[in-house]
Protein: TfoX/Sxy family protein
Amino acid sequence: MAEKRMFGGMAFLHRGNMAVGVTGDDLMVRVGPDTTEQALTRPGARIFDMTGRPMRGWVVVTGSTVAEDEVLGEWIDKGCAFAASLPPK
Structure:
């Protein structure tokens, strides 16, 4: 996992593909377009929309929701699993 400053925060990349990121107190998670709707049913999750144009396959999870290590780990695992399914950059 590599770290890189992006989106005004810190991003974490797996084989060159962004998996998760931190902006402010929130966690951005790359879940993929096929599982976005399912991810949005989880507490604290919302569409990732920084510019008025929602990003397909991404969700933002409220920082207070991921305050517990177990919940944070689940989201990180989801982001890493999707990033691992992509070809390396």
User: Anything to note?
Assistant: The radius of gyration is 12 Å.
